[in-house]
Amino acid sequence: MTDLTHNEQKSIDYTGAKLGMWLFLFTEILLFGGMFLLYAVYRDVHSADFHEAAKEMSLVFGAVNTVILLTSSLTMALSISAIKNNRRTASMLYQVVTVIFAAAFLVNKFIEWQDHILHGIYPNSPELLAMSHGKILYFGLYYVMTGIHGIHVLIGAAIICGTLILTKQGRITSNDYIKLENTGLFWHLIDIIWIYLFPLFYLIK
After folding, report:
1. How far apart are CA 76 and CA 72, in angstroms?
2. Would you say the C-alpha torsion 42, 45, 48, 49 has a positive or negative sign?
3. Which CATH class, in words, describes the domain spanning 9-202?
4. pLDDT on residue 99
5. Under-70 pLDDT residues of the chain
6. Model confidence, pTM
7. How many CA atoms lie within 13 A of 64 on its CB side?
8. Positive or negative CA dihedral for 195, 18, 29, 92?
9. Rounded to 10 degrees, what is the CA torsion of 53, 59, 60, 66?
10. 149 with 190: CB under 8 angstroms?
């Protein structure tokens, strides 16, 4: 039995890392898929309340965040393309820009949440508890689903900061970029999840 060559071992490691990432992403899809299903059930039961509650949402905030995340997915893809072509500096620059977009998304979401809170719309607030049951469910789902998504954005940004350091150290190269590629997959999933959240909470008026 012959030993594996370096390229063969590298291919096996790459396949294993890729498979592991896809399995992780599948668990994330199950998590958000369950919440989307719950939303669909409650919306069907409380359709009128959901439409009325959605009037409290700012389409501008939602649209701006959508543009931010879509653009960040582009810069993340460009960072991977750059490292594949041995353009380390360009890859690092695109990663920095992606993190900046992530920060902009979180700041925008914080401002939006703050606006809701100032209007008395937050979990267990007297104003919210005085609303109909359907509206309470709507805002409960809104805070939980956008909150969990926001945590994912924060985690994704932290991971990209890690890949940025690895790229600078020369540990992510044109010959070994699986860590950056897997990070890109995670970031694109975050983007896709928001693409579903945006119409559910902002476009049902």
Report:
1. 6
2. negative
3. mainly alpha
4. 98
5. 1-11, 13, 205
6. 0.91
7. 14
8. negative
9. 120
10. yes
